[in-house]
Fold:
Amino acid sequence: LFIKNLNWIKKTMSLRPFRDIKRKKTKVINVGDVKIGGNNPIAIQSMTITDTMDTIATVEESIRMIEAGCELVRITAPSKKEAENLQNIKDELRKRGFTTPIVADIHFTPNAAEIAARIVEKVRVNPGNYADKKKFEELEYTDESYIAELNRIKEKFTPLVKICKEHGTAMRIGTNHGSLSDRILSRYGDTPKGMVESAMEFLRICQDENYHDIILSMKASNTRVMVQAYRLLVAEMIKEGMDYPLHLGVTEAGEGEDGRIKSAVGIGTLLADGIGDTIRVSLTEAPEFEIPVAQNLLKHFKGIEQHDSIEKITKNPLHSFDYKKRETNKVLNIGGRNVPIVMADFCLKEKITPASFFALGSNYSVPLDKWHISDMAADYVFVGDHDVDFEVPGTLGIIYNYKKWQEHKKGYPFLTVLEYLEGSYFSDKLNVVYVCLSDLNEKLLARLKTDATAVLMIDTYNENGLAEQRKLFTELMNNGVKTPVIIGRAYGNLSEEQLQLSASSDLGALLLDGLGDGIFIAAENCGSYQSINSLAFGILQASRTRISKTEYISCPSCGRTLFDLQETTAKIRKETDHLKGVKIGIMGCIVNGPGEMADADYGYVGTGKGKITLYKEQTVVEKNIAEEKAVSALIDLIKKHG
Structure:
């Protein structure tokens, strides 16, 4: 049934998002005086991290968020007392002249939601644990028992719907990948389809009550799962004639560079599809710091709808609702079953010396006369017309412009299409051919089909470069060309953060679609070579296509958090950032903890004030450890398992 449904979606879903950017038209929902959906600008929101019972602290943090540009302020209300105190918070904000809508964040407590819905402009409920069961039990349901459970949920949920309808309160039905109920897991598994169905069940209850002031979200810390879930949700809404606006976010994205890259890969991919009406960038940082990141992410897409025309995709070979890597030939370590490579750009560097390669993850030891290669060492470097007349790391391939390569026959050549089609001498191992969509022609496609040494470096000058490069991939696939492709993008005069957000959106979207055998970021005046190299590996990690470092699934903190998340995350990172491929979940409370760490190897979860519980995968290993001893206990646990 699931496969049949996917096939139906592929036949009926518009291909427009794959060729240009035009936001999917959704209905307009009023959240206080902020309009979400329709032609309204994409709204930015964030969430307080103060104790909700501390009225002044919460108000002052809310004001810092609002002054940074936050358009909706979300505040946790885990119990009745916090829900009741929302009135005091709202009154104090209004007294100080701030009318920004407040969103109450609800998980387990229906009576808290019903109180909050009478006070604030919007409530967020999580269908995975609101009136549903989440005990990590494997349950078997017959059709009859499943329907009976749905009826029980309807009985619990309907009072909130009626209150929201009566008071003009909007609602976000916010599914989290990590907190799907045992009932949903029993029928759909831990899948994007299960996430969609979890929300749709609650949405149908709302529709039965003729209540439609609804916004939907499909959050996950895994960008692949998150993007597939949102796309499936849009397809399901098209199928059922619905047009509710969408709230986008990658949950538990983390901090610093990693958090920004991961958020941009997930949110940026969907914005490029024309999906999304409000966004929240979830960072393990103070909430006011999230706002400029969200603003800069949206800035990347500003004016992009005015791009040069791109021919419509008439035959779509892409997998938009599941992950399937494009099948390619293997050329050295590029393509085939290899992970995507990273190619660095040194063509504009004034001078290349052995020390130049330190920025690319390769370090030379003079006493040992030996290169040391890190897990984030670039695989190739494009040097253009430079001469490299010294010994380089054995794992690093040097790419020269074709004429320079012909002089000394070292490394591998970089060719234009004309040089490739009309040249007389090539490398017998690897030839990198620079191609834009407009370069594709029958002669080139025919040559590529018979050349076991060719790798394409694709580029674009279109304002909507993502769509143009996606179109190029579809042309290769529809013509049966299996030549590996390195995705190239050029940027200039951007801040380091803007480069992270722009490149992650542009490259991450293609990688999530299974496209690309490598990436090449040419960034002039956008930061150091080291930061650009780190960004390239970060994009591959965030898209789950190449793992080169420890992954931290770290929540952004809120009023439920039971310890200092930023300080604790920094401590854990300091001790564990050498553990390539290990996934560590750092959760402030039990609400999403065990679930959001669904694919984490180890978990560190706040379960009481100053108390931490440690997990190995989803199994509790040690309960209620004193916070001051918990990081050491986590390290001991990791060591115990090798």
Notes: The chain has a mean pLDDT of 90. Residues 540 and 546 are 5 Å apart (CA to CA).
